[in-house]
Amino acid sequence: MENEKVKYLIDMINDMDLTNKLRLAMCMSDSSCTNLKYNKFEIYEHFDNLLKEIDIEYRTTLINFAKYHLIMFAMAKLMEMTKEEQNQVALYLFNCITSRINKKQVINN
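RESULT FIELD:
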């Protein structure tokens, strides 16, 4: 039953575009409600720089993440999970973003 929560959130992540995945990763690493094993500040900085490269609106204005309902819903689902489940989702999300970025870099070269 518990793995259903993880699977549901991973399915949501799979349906997101790269910009929303980056927003979710930033919210996860910025939130005090997540219990990630990773260096939250370093992850936030990395995804912040990636989002600035991709999203012009994010680069030029102060963004209120509350206006992204899908991101807030995913964060609410994440907060219901145990520490281990949160880390499973975070690892999947970070790997998903990294692989997408690497694929784009290979295509551009």
